[in-house]
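Hi R.,

Here's the chain you asked about this morning:
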Amino acid sequence: MSAYGRLAAASALTLILAAGLASVASAQTNAAAATAHPEMWPKAASPAAITDAKTEAFITKLMGQMTVEEKVAQTIQADGASITPEELKKYRLGSVLVGGNSAPDGNDRATPQRWVEWIRAFRAAALEPRGGHQEIPIMFGVDAVHGHNNVVGATIFPHNIGLGAARDPDLIRRIGEATAEEMVATGADWTFGPTVAVPRDERWGRAYEGYAEDPEVVKSYSGPMTLGLQGPLVAGKPLGAAHVAGSAKHFLADGGTEGGKDQGDAQISEADLVRLHAAGYPPAIDAGILSVMVSFSSWHGVKHTGNKSLVTDVLKGRLGFQGFVVGDWNAHGQVEGCTNTNCAQAYIAGMDMIMAPDSWKGLYDNTLAQVKAGQIPMARIDDAVRRILRVKVKSGLFENKRPLEGKYELLGSPAHRAVAREAVRKSLVLLKNEGVLPLKSSAHVLVAGDGADDIGKAAGGWTLTWQGTGNKNSDFPHGQSIYGGIAEAVKAGGGSAELSTSGDFKTKPDVAIVVFGENPYAEFQGDVASNEYQPGDKTDLALLRKLKAAGIPVVSVFLSGRPMWTNPEINASDAFVAAWLPGSEGGGVADVLVGDGAGKPRNDFHGKLSFSWPKRADQEPINVGDANYDPLFAYGYGLSYAKPGKVAALSENPGAAGAEANVDRYFVAGRVPAPWAMNVAGAASVKTVDAGAQENAREATWSGEGIGTVTIAGPPVDLSRQTTGDMAISIRYRVDASPGKPVSLALACGESCGATVDVTSTLSGAKLGEWRTAKIKLSCFKAKGADMTHVSSPFSLSTAGRMTLSFTEIRLASNEGDAFCPPS
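And the predicted structure, written out as tokens:
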């Protein structure tokens, strides 16, 4: 090597070493910043009834008979879609859960009876005798976050953001009781709630799962919800027959991440971590919460699932929590140095049960080996198993008495629906009223907007499916839409109601109620860059203005999972009501909006904002107590009939809001939204056509004179989380001329990276002229080598043959059992 070469090599080595040292220093800095100091935290304690002598003696005897294999199995939870009862007989895991898109037989609309049969099969597998000691029952966990929302026919309560506006702890307790009763009717015995997050940036897609931006409401609700779900703990006795185990979540600061990013990083002081984000945990622990779920997110770059100072020193130490700690969906795989199937760090940090939905088998094998090798101390596993068994004893699982199981009449019972309707009434917040409300029940009312007669839209995410999409009114057999409630109220008062989504009418109405807002979404899919409502595509504003121009007073009922910049819509309304995500009891809206025959209120507005309403679209984060706090409507704001107020004309300048990323919408409402663009190349052409609405579709024609391609492309986006979340490319299409040669659909991740699937059979099998929807899993492309962190084109359709295809929508959608990978 020449002297120059040796010098260059030495310089390169120096740079590598320097980079390595910098990385180590950065990791050490993060570790120091993310080390909690327990003395800064409040004190709490699980009730003594959770560790009574009788329970502990039973556990000690049982654990003395268990093998190390059985102990490790107790610490692992699998998803019901990724384990069979036969596998459970062999592995005897501690728990089975139902993920957002899991259900019996993969059917989100399974009957309550099928739910019971499915759960019983897992329960029987765990309890099948094999000698040695008493068999250990599983815990069956579900996300019953606003009622027993996984099951058709259940009562769907308002999401937490609406309940926070109600400011009613006793109502929260009663909602917990009703939810638990409906759960036990279908066999479930553990819910992943209450959520005690304090969302500080409403761009976060889970903001609606929090009660308020200020910890005062969360602190007042976490204890009552715990008592509603579980009932009070009694020494030597299990939970009552109508109660289930709860799980306070997500520990900690899931609502405090930078930019409101789901699974992100909270870059805040320990004092703020305690003051803002820990407030809901002491009341829940004092009330006897039996489990706590740890968040995906980080504090100063260190994942909570691997943070011993938070999980062991604070939660189990200072906060005195004696139940067990469970992880989130494969969250352990995000801990530094871990994978989904290998994470000793999580156990050592203090995690008791690892949620390994589809990775459980590999995690079991590796954890067992690590325990036997001493990498995970046996004492740590014994502590985890003791805590898990303690909760199973207190939950009554060893007694296996289930007197309410199979009593399907509890689902959507009149008593539960009455509580939900009360919750809707109390959660509504009146932002503006120019004297149009309350309505006379004798009036002729036009009910318009796409949310008017759509219970699924009113229910939002985490409803039957993970993202809450694809639901029809028939999926809520005991429910009532907002239109249904209004029509019932005015009919009773001698009036009439006319439903028209578009706002067209046969008879000019006395007033129009327009129900509109966000479409359903759940975690990460709901993250947005700006809180502007319908940026660049204000179709709902156009509807409001159309009705106003016709001389009709307009009442807006806004459905959303967060406050949004809606100044133009408020200006175009005579009254504006924040209805949040009210759930299945739309009649609660009519209870407040529709008065008696003389127009006197039957119920007044009760709700007060638990989240500040932005003055500009770029005004995030905005929270009460901030320096220079300047909202449009402040925390605690809410007009009423008894205390009216005036709202002046609002500025319609959104401010310098960040551009909407649109990572999930590629062709909607007749356009390709930014940052995407449609490119047509080769022997293909595209023209605008009508398909039920003016110019809302494109007709693509391939001439067969060579290869033609229709591509949607833009700057690279990261779709890795959407891929692991089982999302799919959804295309609503109509074949007008069948393909003459093979057709491929490609996803590109740069000039030299991508993957292709053959969709010939999908398109050839379509009936000509019939509109269909195809959902092709993102994982199909990943399996063929696509880099899903760098997707530059999510859709590229090519063929060398003749074909004509029209389409109205291309977007990402949740797999609801209808997504597939085309045959190779």
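The mean pLDDT is 93.

Let me know if you need anything else.
M.
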